[in-house]
Amino acid sequence: MYNTGLADFLSSRIEVNDTEIQDFLKMFVSRSVRKKQLIVQPGFTASKRFYIVDGALRSFVINESGQEITIALAVKDWWITDYNSYIYQQPATLFVEALSHSVIMELSFDDEKYLKQLNPKYESFFRIIAERGLAAQQRRMIALHTQTAVQRYENFARQYPQFIQEIPQYIIASFLGMSTEFLSKIRNNKL
After folding, report:
1. Angle at 104 between CA 102 and CA 109, to 5 degrees
2. Is 148 helix (H, G, I), strand (E, B) or coil?
3. Contact 164, 172 (CB under 8 A)
4. 121-148: per-residue pLDDT in tens?
């Protein structure tokens, strides 16, 4: 038996048969992580990428004044790692932390390379998720520079209601580029 969530995710993006699904999934390792557990840390190379089966994770940096800045969020059926570290196999600059007890599927850098060499469909799959991730990052950067804080929160809440339910307010505020206090005012309609 295999992880149907990841199998469904794969088959929703590329056309694959049962053997190709099995070949893909056998490269992954299922793992449980505790709330607040770090699975990537600065200074160490991110040798794996992570598919979220259940739970929530985030990537973040700590600035010079000790403030945590959330770079990415991920919930069920999303992927996360320090991509710069993972792709270039160099030391990470991000932390990746579980925000709740989570179940993840790990894929090592070497196993991903093997899959891409094994079947061009897997290369297409990873290209598709990379393109979609890049497009999402672009939308986020545009929003940070062109929308008010209220607009960013309202759009985020509309587009990602699961984040509002699962992720602490201070992390959402950090991700949206505002203070927790300001986000609280927005949520309480006190502006």
Report:
1. 145
2. coil
3. yes
4. 999 999 999 999 999 999 999 999 999 9
